[in-house]
Every structure is written in structure tokens, then in C-alpha cells.
């Protein structure tokens, strides 16, 4: 409402009389008429004033309610976010949340346009505001309690972990128990537990601690006695369910411990002398001892038998690993000192440190080799054990002959072969010979009558010459490598299309068909290489491995080729388990591989005999090669001038039926 100005005495001037003030009064109705005329106007004015007051009141109320609603929304959003916090975060954010709520209230009040609207807003928001502030305060206090509870739980868990790490040490366990109870007391205070809840939590925590301790002792070392003693000492503080679970946990280890005790007693009762056999202990005797015990229940007996078998399997595997390591140690030593098995006759030559690592069978085989070499040396003073054999040559024993004859192959060897020695001059001559498999084969129809007579004279010369005492029939290193290259790949580094000769299935490469992984780590003293695309390097590795296998088996060529084809580890296992009939245990592919190599070696040796006989007949080397090429096709056809030398029929160890069978095999075989 506009204010009426009030004037002070010194501000008012004297009243002046004017003509207007002296005009006559309209008093047609008198005073009453004037009042009657003014009352309606007064009533209308009062009515208009009331209407304006009501409108302004409704307006202020509406604005105040709108502001209150917005304030409540903002406060609600803030309190919801705050309620999502917990623990330390809630405790730290309490003061800030309260300040933000009050700031929201102040901002809303500042939007009120008059005191009445402000008062209305204050009245409308007072309740929600107080409720929000109480919620923030309560949640902040709850966060503080949670902080205390989390700290108490952490202290309790650390106490239990410390006790577990102490492996059931009594002092550590007593301290952990005190710390657990103290932590639970702080947790009860923080979370306002009653006495009953505190007791329940204490009992649960201690029971859980004891249960975990028993499992920790078992897991740490399987000390079933310590675990059982701890359980019995603390079971009065364990819940019934935890007691049942712990008893079940202990039952299995206790049964195993009892079975182990029974097995140990059985092993001790049937003990074997160390070194008597290549086995960890007498499993059969142990089983018999367990079955004979009357004090065992059936379940205990079965458990003990199962554990005995498992124990034997594990111990046997460990023993096999030990003996394999011993074998490798012996091979490394033998390579370093150039140990020659053919010359091994002296006690003490193999150091005790090496002998101690060998398995009983390997040690027995080594001693047997020594004794056999001694016996041969006494019987035959010129036996190879008395004279070093050239490294580039191979002295063949009776085993090689038996492999040849036992599988239908012809050989020019007999029992006297072992007496042969090869001079360096002869070795150089034989190694310089060309590859007999690559001499071009001439057409059969090109044989002249004179050439046919010449071939016959050469064959007659062969039949009349005793090659049994000649070094010509001793295979050289190059002979073995050449036979292998032809069997593996027809002695091809590259295919006919010019591509590298790589086996698509296995990845073996070049003439010797060496695998890349073998080339990188060949073992057995062979020099490794990373040049897997270099034929020369790959074939070198293959050749070194082949000769290493030959030396490993003391010149036994069948075992050499078995190693090269089937793998030395596989062959070792077969030799260990099938000493007498090991050849029959090889895969068919490997047996055929050995026979094919022996066939090729046989032809290489015969080629050398053929050239020697040709030279004795005065035939040049070039002519002899042509005659050889004329004879080779007849070999597969069992016709023409190619015949079996008569020296074959001189072998008294073969029966007629066996001769006919070998002869047929000779005629039927097909060489590339």
C-alpha cells in the first residue's frame, strides 16, 4: 500500500482562503444523502481489495509449494546418493552432504519474492529438510560403525591367518584365540550386537578357525597325527557340523596313513638286496604279505594293495628316470674318452662314478661284454680286442649274419669275419668306389656274346676266390650311409621337379630324411645345425647320427637302423623288455626298413667283389661298370648271367632247405 506522507509543522504553510473554498455546498439531500451515495462505492472498493488480497495469497502459496517441491527433489537425490556410500566413504561424506542440503535450502529461500512466500516455503520444507539431515547424520554414524566393524573383521582374519601360518603352534593358537574374541567384541560394539549375537559370532568364528587349521596342517605336509591331535584338543569349541566335516576330512588321510604303514611293513618283510634287480621293491612279495595279514579288514586290505601298486609305479618311474640318466651319463663319458666296446677288457676302465649310475641290467651287460671280450682275446690273439679297429670301418659279428640269413638275405660273411682287419689303403680304395645304384642300367638285348662270356668268367673268378678273409666284404662308414640314403630317399636331395625332397607327412628332409627338430638337437655326439634348408648340413647330421647309433650298439647294424627309423628311445624300451626276441617286437615298417638296408648293403659289398674279380681278370674299371649294368636287371628277373657264387653253398651252418629259401629270396628281391 502507498504510504501517506506526513509533514512536520515547519513544512506546512498557512491556509489560504480561495474563492473555490467558499463555493456553495451541494446539499440537496443533506448529510444523509451524501452518506447514502458514498456507501456503495466504499463497499465495492473493499470487495476489490479483498479479491486482490486472495489472489496474491494464492499466488504466493503456489510459488512456495513449487519451490518446496524442487527443494525436496534436490534433497532426495542428494540423500539417495549419500545412502549408497558405506563405511569410511559415508563417514567422510556426512559433513559435506549436510552442507549441500543447507545450501539447497538457502538457494530455494532466495527465490521467494516476498516475506509471506518465504515463510510459506520454510513451513513446507521444514519437515523434509529435518528428515534429510537426520538421515545423513544417521548414515554417517553407520559408516563410522562399519569402519570399526571392518577393522575388527580385518584384525580377526589376520589373527586367524597368523595362527594358520604357525602350523598349529600352541602359543600362536592361544594368542590368535584371544585376538579373535577381542576383535569380535569391537565388532559387536560397532554393529550394536546384543549378548546373544556376540556369543553366536564368537562360537562360529572359533569353530571356523579350528576347522581351517586342521585342513591347513593336512595340506601343508600331510601330518595326520598333528592334525588329529589339534582336532581332539579343540573339538569342544567346534560346531557339530564342523566336527562332522573335519572327521570326514581326517578319515581319508588316516586310512592312507594306515595303508602306508601296512605297505612299509610288507616291503620290509620282503626286502630285496640292492642291485639284485632293476626294480624298486618286490611288488609280488609285498602283495602276498598284505593278503596274508589276518588283522586287516577287507577295506584296509584293498586300500593297502592299491597303495602298494601305486607306490611301486611311482618308485619304478623314478628308478627308470634315474637309470635313463645313468645311461646318458655313460654315453657322454664314453664319447669323451673314446670308449671302445670291442676293446673293453680291463677292470677299472669304466669309473666307479659312472658304473654307480647304471641300472643293474646295464651293469650286468657291461660286465658280460668285458668277460666275452676277455674270452675271445684268450682264444684268438688277433681278435679286434687286441688291436684298434679303424673308426671308418665296421667289424661285423655273427649277429649280422644271423639277421641276414634269418630274414632270407644272402651274405658273404661267416664266423671268420671278426678276424678281419682293414688297412687304411684298402679303406681309401673302397670308399672311392662310385655309387653302384646310380650306374646306368644297360639294355638286356645289348649284351654281346663276348660280354656274356666275360661276365661268366668274372663270376667264375668270384666263385673260386675265398673272400671270407678279405677286407673287401667289410662295410665302411660310407657303405652304411649310402645304403641308408637309398632306402630313405633313393639318394635324392631334390625331387624330379626340382623341389626340395621333403616328406609332406613327417617333414623329413633331403637324402637322409632328417627332421628339422632332430637336426637342431640330434644328441649322441652329433653336431647340431639350424640350416634345415641346406642338404649338406642335414645329411651330415643324419650320417653322424647313423654312425653314432652303430657305435652305440657295438656294430650291430640291425639295431643301428632300428634306432634311425623307430627312434632310439623306442628301441631302448624294446631291448629292455624283450632282450631275446627284440627284432620281432619292432613295427613291421621298421623290420622292412632294416631288411631293405641290409639288402642294399649286400649289393654294395657284392659290387666291390665284382670289381675286384673284374680287375683280377684284367678288365678295366669302365668295362666292369658296363658289365655290372648288364647284370643288374637279371638280378630281379632271376635269369641271365647273374648267379649265386659257389661260396654260398660252402657255408656248413645252413641246411639245404634254408639254402633254397634264401636262394629264392635272393632271386625275388627287387633293388632300385
From TrEMBL:
Positions of region (Disordered): 1-27
Database matches in InterPro entries: Lysozyme-like_dom_sf, Transglycosylase_SLT_dom_1
Domain named Transglycosylase SLT: residues: 498-580
Any Pfam family hit: SLT
Gene3D superfamilies per the UniProt record, alphabetical: 1.10.530.10
Family of the protein in this entry: Belongs to the virb1 family.
Protein name per UniProt: Transglycosylase SLT domain-containing protein
Amino acid at each position: 500500500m502507498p504510504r501517506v506522507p506526513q509533514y512536520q509543522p515547519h513544512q506546512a504553510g498557512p491556509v489560504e482562503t480561495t474563492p473555490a473554498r467558499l463555493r456553495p455546498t451541494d446539499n440537496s439531500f443533506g448529510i444523509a444523502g451524501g452518506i447514502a451515495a458514498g456507501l456503495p462505492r466504499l463497499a465495492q472498493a473493499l470487495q476489490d481489495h479483498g479479491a486482490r488480497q486472495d489472489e496474491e495469497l494464492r499466488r504466493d502459496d503456489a510459488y512456495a509449494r513449487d519451490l518446496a517441491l524442487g527443494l525436496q527433489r534436490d534433497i532426495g537425490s542428494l540423500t539417495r546418493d549419500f545412502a549408497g556410500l558405506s563405511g569410511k566413504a559415508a563417514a567422510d561424506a556426512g559433513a559435506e552432504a549436510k552442507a549441500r542440503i543447507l545450501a539447497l535450502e538457502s538457494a530455494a529461500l532466495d527465490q521467494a519474492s516476498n516475506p509471506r512466500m518465504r515463510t510459506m516455503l520454510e513451513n513446507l520444507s521444514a519437515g523434509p529438510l529435518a528428515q534429510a539431515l537426520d538421515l545423513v547424520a544417521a548414515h554417517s554414524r553407520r559408516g563410522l560403525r562399519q569402519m570399526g566393524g571392518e577393522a575388527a573383521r580385518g584384525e580377526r582374519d589376520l589373527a586367524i591367518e597368523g595362527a594358520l601360518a604357525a602350523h598349529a603352534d600352541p602359543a600362536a593358537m592361544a594368542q590368535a584365540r584371544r585376538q579373535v574374541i577381542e576383535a569380535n567384541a569391537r565388532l559387536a560394539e560397532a554393529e550394536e550386537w546384543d549378548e546373544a549375537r556376540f556369543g553366536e559370532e564368537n562360537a562360529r568364528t572359533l569353530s571356523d578357525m579350528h576347522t581351517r587349521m586342521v585342513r591347513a596342517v593336512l595340506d601343508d605336509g600331510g601330518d595326520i597325527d598333528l592334525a588329529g591331535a589339534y582336532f581332539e584338543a579343540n573339538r569342544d569349541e567346534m560346531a557339530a557340523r564342523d566336527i562332522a566335516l573335519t572327521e570326514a576330512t581326517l578319515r581319508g588321510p588316516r586310512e592312507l596313513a594306515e595303508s602306508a604303514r601296512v605297505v612299509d611293513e610288507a616291503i620290509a618283510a620282503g626286502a630285496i638286496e640292492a642291485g639284485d634287480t632293476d626294480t624298486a621293491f618286490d611288488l609280488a612279495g609285498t602283495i602276498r604279505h598284505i593278503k596274508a595279514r589276518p588283522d586287516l579288514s577287507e577295506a584296509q586290505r584293498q586300500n593297502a594293495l592299491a597303495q602298494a601298486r601305486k607306490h611301486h609305479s611311482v618308485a619304478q618311474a623314478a628308478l627308470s628316470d634315474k637309470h635313463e640318466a645313468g645311461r646318458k651319463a655313460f654315453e657322454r663319458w664314453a664319447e669323451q674318452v673314446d670308449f671302445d666296446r670291442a676293446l673293453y677288457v680291463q677292470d677299472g676302465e669304466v669309473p666307479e662314478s659312472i658304473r654307480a649310475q647304471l641300472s643293474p641290467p646295464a651293469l650286468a651287460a657291461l660286465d658280460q661284454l668285458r668277460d666275452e671280450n676277455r674270452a675271445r682275446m684268450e682264444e684268438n690273439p688277433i681278435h679286434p680286442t687286441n688291436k684298434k679297429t679303424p673308426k671308418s670301418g665296421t667289424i661285423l659279428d655273427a649277429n649280422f649274419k644271423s639277421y641276414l640269413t634269418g630274414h632270407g638275405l644272402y651274405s658273404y660273411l661267416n664266423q671268420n669275419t671278426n678276424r678281419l682287419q682293414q688297412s687304411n689303403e684298402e679303406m681309401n680304395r673302397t670308399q672311392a668306389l662310385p655309387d653302384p645304384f646310380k650306374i646306368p642300367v644297360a639294355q638286356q638285348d645289348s649284351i654281346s656274346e663276348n660280354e656274356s662270356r666275360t661276365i661268366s668268367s668274372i663270376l667264375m673268378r668270384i666263385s673260386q676266390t675265398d673272400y671270407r678273409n678279405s677286407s673287401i666284404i667289410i662295410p665302411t662308414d660310407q657303405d652304411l650311409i649310402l645304403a641308408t640314403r637309398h632306402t630313405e630317399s633313393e639318394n635324392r636331395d631334390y625331387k624330379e621337379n626340382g623341389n626340395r625332397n621333403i616328406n609332406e607327412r613327417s617333414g623329413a628332409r633331403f637324402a637322409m630324411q632328417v627332421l628339422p627338430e632332430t637336426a637342431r638337437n640330434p644328441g649322441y655326439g652329433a653336431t647340431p645345425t639350424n640350416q634345415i634348408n641346406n642338404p649338406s648340413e642335414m645329411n651330415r647330421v643324419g650320417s653322424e647320427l647313423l654312425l653314432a647309433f652303430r657305435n652305440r650298439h657295438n656294430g650291430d647294424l640291425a639295431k643301428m637302423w632300428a634306432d634311425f627309423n623307430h627312434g632310439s628311445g623306442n628301441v631302448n624300451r624294446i631291448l629292455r623288455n624283450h632282450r631275446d626276441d627284440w627284432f620281432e617286437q619292432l613295427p613291421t615298417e621298421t623290420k622292412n626298413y632294416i631288411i631293405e638296408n641290409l639288402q642294399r648293403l649286400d649289393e654294395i659289398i657284392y659290387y666291390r667283389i665284382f670289381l675286384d674279380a673284374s680287375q683280377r681278370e684284367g678288365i678295366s674299371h669302365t668295362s666292369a661298370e658296363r658289365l655290372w649294368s648288364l647284370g643288374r636287371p637279371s638280378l630281379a628277373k632271376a635269369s641271365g648271367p647273374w648267379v649265386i657264387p659257389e661260396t654260398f653253398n660252402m657255408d656248413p651252418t645252413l641246411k639245404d632247405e634254408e639254402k633254397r629259401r634264401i636262394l629264392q629270396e635272393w632271386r625275388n628281391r627287387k633293388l632300385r
